[in-house]
Hints:
- By secondary structure, this protein is α/β, with parallel strands linked by helices.
- It has two domains: 3-148, Rossmann fold, CATH 3.40.50; 165-368, Rossmann fold (3-Layer(aba) Sandwich).
- It is built from 16 helices and twelve strands.
- Strands 3-2-1-4-5-6 form a six-stranded parallel sheet, sandwiched between helices.
- α8 crosses α11 (258-267), α9 (207-221) packs across α10 (235-244) and α9 (207-221) runs parallel beside α15.
- The two termini are 36 Å apart.
Amino acid sequence: MKNVLLVNPFxxxxxxxxxxxxxxxxxxxxxxxxxxxxxxxxxxxxxxxDVDEIVSIHKDELKNLSRTKVLSYLFRLFVKLRSxxxxxxxxxxxxxxxxxxxxxxxxxxxxxxxxxKRRGAFLTERIDLPNGFSGKHVIEFYRDLASxxxxxxxxxGLRWYGDPEEERSALEKAVRAGLDLSQPYLxxxxxxxxxWGKDAVFKQWAPEKFARLLSFLGAExxxxxVLAVGSASEKxxxxxxxxxCSLHVTDVAGRVSLGETVALxxxxxxFVGNDGGLLHLAKAAGCPTVSIFGPVDPKVYGPHxxxxxxxxxxxxxxxxRPCYHKFRxxxxxxxxxCLTELSVDEVARQIKEKPMxxxxxxxxxxxxx
Length: 369
């Protein structure tokens, strides 16, 4: 392999899960590695030194264009990509379309990926996924793909590369918003699940419960400040945390970029949030994490590799969870008991059982990283 095109059209966490594979490809001697991403995730790899170019495909924007403009866009894209003379496609999309066009329009001879629901027909080498990703972490499935390519990732940690200028900008914005950088602070992300669209609520614990949990952590760790982060669409959730939390909450949701958000998370003593992209960015940035999981199995999609600095909380009594299976979830679930019945006391109990809280309570925050 010399010139590789990798496709991952999914969310922030999924793109981060691919970073050990990306690193392994470059270490194996790949000369050029380009990546096709969805429109929301380019920032995840924009400063990754192992990626030569990012191609962002804005499918929602394409839907609003005329047929002529769409064909013109695709023609120019195919001409550009064909000129790169890729010898290998690594398709993480779980669909047919990318491998099909890679063969037909780009002339890529070797096409490697996963075969889910017989969608791997245009792949030349494939790993069958009869049950989707289940039983082990997504990163482990990507490791299997690396083995198929005869390369072995020597490390499985997520990779995030920041920008000093973004960090400077982030700190300035946070201070203007009211954050005291001379004091330790917790970070909370009460949103998450953007890739689930209108059903993102199925992955979200109540903001008021987050507020109470933050008060508990603040009292335990002698911390009085909280930074609330999230996208512009999650400002209502962060506002509810701020309104009901006994600690001083600085809300920057929708006011900082993705890179600036990670810079602020990295300076926090602990990240508290739902299963979602910011959780995995916090993990990649080296921040201790407390994460709430509802319908999704943390064994498959949780922080990885999990250490003493990660507390993963879910309802241990419900037989119906995790219900997310074969990339489907029970959208008709009326009670969402996995989250609505998960109490603050139960979350606090599970946190107390883990080593991380003792480390944070000692004030040796760096030890938890």
